[in-house]
Specification:
By secondary structure, the chain is of the alpha+beta class. It is built from three helices and 30 strands. The strands form seven sheets. Strands 5, 6, 9, 10, 11, 22, 23, 24, 25, 26, 27 and 28 form a twelve-stranded antiparallel beta sheet that branches. The protein is rod-shaped.
């Protein structure tokens, strides 16, 4: 009988050492939770045995219970890394074609080739669907979706109108081409956009074609005449190019003409054919086809009432265009409440979902699946779903990961104690063997 009693102690000590070894092996595993072996004594009793004379029959492993205490945190620069402070688990779906959901405390996530937010094991992070304001529109396991980042945002729109306000310096001189001027051609300059001496100033405006491709529109401003006194006007020529193509407004390649009074107030802007539109600061260009598109595009420019000719230097004071590019995703952020938002190059901000958290009545009853995954069992109870910061669920932090909750020092001390227990039971077994051998060697 004593052989089996000592054997039960050896087996129990082996289980404890194996459990401690497993804990130590995962000291660097993110989201890992250590386990502790719980023992119970074995008693063989019946009604005929006095309670004061009962002898135990050894020990048995009652449970290897998981310990869900908080692990340490490790800071990171990844905006998708998350840490749960308190109770709760992330929900992940290892297989998109399956309804099976696993749970984890490992919040190290990244974006895979299909733009899904996933962990190192391929599990897709599950979120609640939200509307444009970030409000959850559906809850429950069946309503959760795998978080996927969109590649683009918005619908492209070609630029149709540009509102532009500038100040042209009243002190600017009229450009002169010395060769033409000396030859008596009657021309003081010959405009050449590649020769800065033939124009006074230039301004650049980003516009968009029908596909949302960015183009640069450049206006070149050339002073043509100067005011000679009160009641007289001064004029400027404006040459407009999109890329290498000069825009026309009426006929030929003639530029726009801007006219200012002697106080520097804009009086009119005339098209190339001399037509003055209403309002007087507005000009519509002929249709043109950008180099990046096959769709003809109409464009107009309005210099407005804020365009002036004052003695101060040239400045572009305001600019608005109504075109729109397709937004390319630039960054992803997660709020403390778990709302995932994406920012795009066109200025859009789009909420993508709200991180779903799960909790259980008895987390120690979860089935370990490996890879820091757990699944629900009848012992743990069904998953209760909630959100970060809600009652019974932990708080969410971004840019951090939960480390293993294994304390190396504590585990090493426990390992030494388990080793001593094993040695003691082995010694007890050896002693029982020696006693039996002595009995066998006795002679009558």
């Amino acid at each position: 009988m004593t052989f089996y009693t000592s054997l039960s102690g050896l087996q129990a000590s082996q289980t404890e050492m194996a459990t401690i070894s497993h804990n130590l092996a995962n000291v660097s595993t993110n989201g890992f939770k250590k386990s502790r072996v719980e023992f119970a004594d074995v008693m063989a009793s019946n009604v005929s045995v006095s309670p004061t004379q009962m002898v135990g029959s050894g020990t048995v492993v009652k449970a290897v219970r998981q310990q869900f205490s908080q692990g340490g945190s490790q800071q990171s620069t990844n905006s998708l890394d998350m840490l749960i402070s308190g109770e709760g688990f992330f929900a992940v779906k290892p297989d998109l074609n399956s309804a099976k959901v696993s749970f984890t405390r490992n919040g190290a996530f990244f974006v895979d080739n299909d733009r899904f937010v996933t962990d190192a094991n391929g599990g897709k992070l599950q979120v609640y669907p939200v509307d444009g304001s970030g409000t959850v529109v559906a809850t429950g396991l069946d309503s959760m979706v795998s978080l996927r980042l969109p590649a683009t945002s918005g619908v492209p729109s070609a630029t149709k109108k540009i509102d532009l306000s500038i100040n042209l310096s009243a002190n600017a001189s009229i450009p002169k081409d010395s060769t033409l001027f000396a030859a008596g051609t009657g021309k003081t300059y010959a405009f050449d956009r590649f020769n800065p001496s033939t124009y006074n100033n230039s301004s650049q405006t980003t516009i968009y074609d029908a596909l949302g491709n960015a183009q640069t529109m450049t206006n070149y401003y050339v002073r043509d005449t100067a005011s000679t006194g009160p009641g007289t006007t001064s004029t400027w020529k404006v040459y407009t190019f999109v890329g290498s193509e000069q825009l026309t407004s009426g006929s030929g390649k003639d530029p726009m003409t801007m006219t200012f009074d002697d106080k520097g107030k804009l009086q009119s802007v005339a098209a190339g054919n001399g037509t003055v539109s209403t309002p007087s600061s507005f000009v519509a260009f002929d249709f043109f086809t950008p180099a990046s598109s096959t769709t003809p595009q109409g464009l107009s420019i309005d210099f407005g009432s804020m365009t002036t000719q004052l003695s101060s230097p040239f400045v572009k004071s305001a600019e608005v265009q109504d075109g729109r590019a397709i937004g390319q995703i630039e960054s992803v952020t997660i709020s403390e409440y778990g709302v995932v938002s994406a920012s795009f190059s066109n200025g859009d901000t789009q909420p993508l979902g709200k991180v779903a958290l799960a909790n259980f009545s008895n987390p120690s009853g979860l089935r370990q699946l490996g890879k820091s995954y757990w699944s629900a069992t009848g012992v743990s109870g069904e998953a209760r779903l909630g959100e970060a910061g809600a009652n019974g669920f932990g708080n969410l932090s971004t840019g951090a990961i939960e480390r293993s909750n294994v304390d190396i020092t504590e585990e090493l001390v426990s390992l030494i104690a388990a080793q001593r227990n094993f040695q003691a039971n082995a010694k007890s077994l050896e002693t029982s063997s020696q006693i039996s051998q002595t009995i066998f060697n006795m002679r009558s």
